Write the structure tokens for this entry.
Amino acid sequence: MKPRFRLVFSGFFAIFATLPAVAQGPVALDASKLNLASANVLVLDAADNRPIYAKAANEVTPIASLTKLMTAIVTLDAGLSLDEAIAIDMDDFDYLKGSHSRLRMGAELPRREMLRLALMASENRAASSLARYYPGGTQAFVAAMNAKARSLGMTRTRYSDPTGLSAENVSTASDLAVLVNAAAQYPLIREFSTTQSHYVEVQSTGQLLGFNNTNGLVKSSDWDIQVSKTGFIREAGKCLVMMATISSRPVVIVLLDSLGRYTRVADAMRVKYWLETGESLPVRTANAATAVRSAKLVKSGKYAKSVKYTKSATAAPNRGRVTGTFPVAGQVKYTSVRQVR
């Protein structure tokens, strides 16, 4: 199990002690008021590269589909035509995790649309096709990803595939903050990664397919998000990186290895509230959307194997069990404990 201790560092890459790291801004910030369930965290003021909060930020961990931000950068740096049609091939199928895709064998889209779907919908076959159509193929593409990481100073980052399905794609919260800053310099990445929903017409069949962004926060009027990417494989847990404007400042948020379906989103909400007010987000507010759904799950007896709840927003994750005391409207509560395999 990964350590859950917090770390202090005074520079962007160095960590010197095992206490929460907090840099002061317009609002006095007390790290003890920011209780996050994500295992690895970095909150960075992007205007001056100033770390605001860090938790195990230099710990190397799998990064899942956060990989696709680098996939997008390498694709755009290559200067290839975004209007060129590229097609899904058997080599783009996921034989490692068996993930689902609606882009079937032979599906053909412009490179621009494959890039958009890879970013907003985390489409694995789209990301794979971008690499396969790169000069020299996928092997050359992955080499370019690693070369770009080195040029950015991402010294603890390694890529082995363009999708993030491989657990050998690893990085740190600190390195990923560098990646988000770099990605924000590309207008198309800013646009595509925050597209709420999008329809594409598969050229080979004329089929119209709709896709939604994997980060629901891009649809919220409470957020001003410039760059977004989610990720998940079992080895990495739920992951989320964003650049967003909070209190009139550009802020990079990196949340890695979150337990439960909603934890990374709730953690992002806690970070935003803390930066704006200096206070902890009330549990009822933090869990509002989750609580209603959780109560319904408990009441109906429906559980998903991947769902892992805790007793409160500040409780330590309880691996292997679904444990919930969920406040809903009024004083009604549902409580349940059920083993998860």
About this structure: DSSP finds nine helices and 14 strands in the chain.
